[in-house]
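User: Study the shape:
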Amino acid sequence: MNSHPSDTPFDFDLLQRPAGAGAGRGRRATLWLLGLLLMLVVAVVSLVIYLQRFETEEDLRRQSADAQWLEQGARFHFRRLEDDLQVLAHRTREAPGGEAGFSLSVVNAGLLVREPGVVQAQGWLPAQPDAAADRPIARQLLADAADPVNAEMLAVMQDVASGLRRPAYAGPMRAVGPSGQADEAAVVWLAVPLFDEGRFSGSYLARLSLKQAVDAFVPYWFKDQHEIRLFDELQRTQAGVLDERSRQAALDLPGTDFALQVRSTTADAPTVPRAFFLVALVCLLGMLGALYALRLDFLKRQRVELALQAQVALRSAIENAATIGLRAWDRQGRILYVNRAFCRMVGFEPDELLGRSAPMPYWPAHQAAELDLLHRDVIAQGTEEAGIEVQFQHKAGQLVDVLIHEAPLNSADGQPLGWMSSVLDISERKRAERSAARQQQKLEASGRLVAMGEVASTLAHELNQPLGALSGFANGLLNRLRQGRLSDAELIGVVERMEQLSAKSGRIIQRVSAFARRREMSREPLELGAFVRRVVEPLQRQRPSVFQVVLPAQPLWIEGDALLLEHALLNLVSNAEHWAAQASRPPRVQVGVTHVTSAEQGVELEVADSGPGVPSDQRDQVFNAFFSAKDGGMGMGLAICRSVVEAHHGHIEVGTSTPLGGASFRLILPLIAGVGAAEQDAPASRPGALPWSDLPGT
């Protein structure tokens, strides 16, 4: 069955055997140097990352410490302010002249009391309303309370101070006016309550400017290194998350929600990481010098690279035919190599095929002689660019259609060794072509059925009126004879026969029309671009210079009967091809799909040709049944197309093609609203199929 021996044996191992022994003296040294370089790079990078992280953590710790220091300082000064106002409350209440009799200098006051502009107004406010009404502090309090929001905050402050017996704050005060915005100076009120034998005597009130207070207790050296901003709860919400160089310091003023945003404006230069970068750079330059020395050693390895070119040639040939069946054979027709894809294709294992020569075990018995001749031709000259189509027989018995391309297999020095075959399984394509042929037969049968339906419907429409009139005349004659107006008895028999014949003719027409109406439409979602490509592509492959298809990038979905639409499209394409051949210029037919962007969303399918076009006086008649400009034409093709399109709730138009100069037939069909890629899994048919009798013109 096989002939393993050969007069000139070929050793396939030459493609996998190095041309000479490689020099490996510097391989170990190279590995050591590369390992040392890798370790050095990793160490330098790790150290730099560690130092940068250390600097970052140190900077964050310093920022947090600054914010805590500022927060503690603010608490100290405001607690001192509360104590100072407590002392002033005792002395003012005991003074016979009220607060006018004392000066702040009398008290050993803190910084906020002594700093100008911090305390904008202050004074004693007794608990008795009558005694407090004429005091200046009461008038200032009433002025700020003119705003409802301010009044509510001030009332809460006084209730907290008297109820909880501790100082309370209120603010920020809103400016009294139509704007209603908070004062830019962040004014707050402070109430320090005073009790006498457990009874509330009154409060010492102070109107404070927080901005002035912050400027007073923050030292200048701290301001030089930080940016300090005062904001309340609303501003904090609007500001969002602070950046990495900002911290918050709460003022801890009961009754308000003020805080300080502290942002460092100075940054220490990372001198240590830069120094380590310099050291790492020097080390890397040294390693580059070592690698240059290694390059001199690599030049000695060229002979090894030359020896590997044979394997590169084989691997390159395999890569050129990736994911398909691969087969290599020598010039004597002996199989040298097969991949797993080829083995799965024919059902044999590699050890069953390697070394085999003609006849091959996967050749069909009935084609062995023909394949042997083809095999010899391929060994001699390879295959053409288009390849050759043959049939292989699987080990299980089934036939497999394949397409074979041959590429020369050469040695490293260019000597021809044999051929590398790429084998493509085209069984599915062949089945699709056979299915397309059966579909074409169905289309032709459907076309004949549709044409018969159109003819029957037209005849029924044309003959029904004269037959109805004949029946009416016959009935009139009968009536007159029965009334005695016509007494000829023989005439009655003739008229009765006419009436019977007309009734019989009507029944015949009804049966023919009913037979034509038995065809129903099966609607389903169709992606129009893919549908047009499937219908026109076979014609385009046969005559690529004639047909041109222009499709949109995005999918356009319609709902319709694929068989009827295919019949209509083929009618238009056949008509365009016929008339394109009648012109003096080279025939061209263009089929395009575009999206109609108008008030009514739709899709346009255009079939244009380079023929003489449709005269303007015939454009209103081309869709009429039995009208044809062709010699011997039946005149039903365009009428059927119009019926199919109108059955899909669309319309068809005829005009002149601008690019081609011939006729242009445009089919406007409605889109399916909201249909996308998910509709690809929709069922093949939907309920609500329309009967063929609903088509216009039938």
Observations:
- The longest strand covers residues 399-410.
